[in-house]
Amino acid sequence: MKFVLFHLMPYRNLDFVAAKKYRSAWTLLPNSFYDPVKGAEDYAAYIEQLVSGERLGFDIIGVNEHHQTAYGMMPAPNLIASALIQRTKHVNIGVFGRALPLVNNPITIAEEFAMLDNMSKGRLIVGFVRGIGSEYHTSGVNPAFSHERFHEAHDLIVKSWKQPGPFAFEGEHFTLNYANPWPRPFQNPHPKIWIPSQGSAETIHWAAAPERRYPFVVTFSTAEAVERYLKVYRSEAEKFGYEVSSDQLGWAAPIYVADTDERAREEAREPLERLFNDYLPMPWEMLIPPGYSSLASTKALAKVRTGLGVERQTLEQLIEKGTAIIGSPKTVRERIEQMRDRTGLGNMVCLLQFGTLNDELTNRNIERFASDVMPFLQDRTSAKKNAQPAA
């Protein structure tokens, strides 16, 4: 298995009592709640946590993009990625979530990623997403065009990486007389592309297509939903006539490791419940604005979310549903191993700081996961491969 040390970079000093007067920590929460001094301290601590991933043996350190929210302070993840590149030498850098439909000129994303790929000498992995529903309110983009803009922006970016410019591009949403990004990517023809998602049927079908075969990562979902969507991806690949590799299947989840299950639950309870009950929630019309998803995908999402971001969730509920992995090293290993055995999962995206989890507990969690969980799963995966009879 490959392991990603992933970060959301939440604003931890939020006045939760006062914030409750607003409908959500997304879009509607006034930025007067943000204290630049405390925010700057968080940025420094979070970057240190990610940089430690190289020393501890993580395969990838990852960031993402969100706008106008206390949930995650990375409206420009390329800036964080640039800082990480300067602080590391070998570990891959994942930007798991540039929201393609929200930009007016996708070539700017092609250029930024090409710069990062050159600066890191080929260590960049990119993730393309459509963006959270509320971000269509903040950007002013019509959510009814979300899929169209995503696909068109993707096609323009990939073409600009593969085909020498300048060339003209004429689409329904993006039209350029000159597509000619400088610099070109360091990797040939371009950085690896991953697709994080909460399970849109259209996204799974598109990502699994033979011309793409993009790794698909299920995010913030119950264990039942993760298993279902990864199997749907596998089924789509079979319909296309090929067999999925473990490198194409991923799962992103909050994880906390301590000496015992009891201690892990005690230390993770408040930060985890803050994440799901204070940072994440938004009204349904913000989460899924009209036109954002097909009717079938909207119904499916409503079913699998089972209250996530809508109803209050306890730590026990989140553990029981498999949305979060909390416990002793043995418990955490077993939960990940069970999902891997059921799905063929090959990429584990680990959210080891979440909600209000402080630096001391976060650093201990990262160290403990790296020493007591990660090597065991890497070794077991290798052992299983070695035990298979030759074809």
Radius of gyration: 20 Å
Name of the CATH architecture: Alpha-Beta Barrel
Low-pLDDT stretches are 381-391
Strand content: 15-25%
CATH top-level class = Alpha Beta
What's the total number of strands? Answer: 11
Largest beta sheet: what is the strand line-up?
1-2-3-4-7-8-9-11
CATH superfamily: Luciferase-like domain
Note down, in words, how this protein is organized.
- The protein has 391 residues and is α/β, with parallel strands linked by helices.
- The chain has one domain (2-387): Alpha-Beta Barrel (TIM Barrel), CATH 3.20.20.
- It has helices at residues 16-19, 36-56, 77-87, 107-119, 134-139, 146-162, 201-208, 223-240, 261-279, 284-287, 295-305, 315-321, 329-343, 359-372, 374-387, and strands spanning 2-6, 60-63, 92-99, 124-129, 167-170, 175-179, 192-197, 216-219, 249-257, 325-327, 347-351.
- α7 links the parallel β7 and β8 (216-219).
- α2 (36-56) runs parallel beside α14 (359-372).
- The longest helix is centred in the N-terminal third of the chain and has 21 residues, at 36-56.
- It is globular and about 60 Å long.
- Mean pLDDT is 92; it is low at 381-391.
Topology:
Layout: E1 2-6, H1 16-19, H2 36-56, E2 60-63, H3 77-87, E3 92-99, H4 107-119, E4 124-129, H5 134-139, H6 146-162, E5 167-170, E6 175-179, E7 192-197, H7 201-208, E8 216-219, H8 223-240, E9 249-257, H9 261-279, H10 284-287, H11 295-305, H12 315-321, E10 325-327, H13 329-343, E11 347-351, H14 359-372, H15 374-387
Parallel strand pairs: 1-2, 1-11, 2-3, 3-4, 4-7, 7-8, 8-9, 9-10, 9-11
Antiparallel strand pairs: 5-6
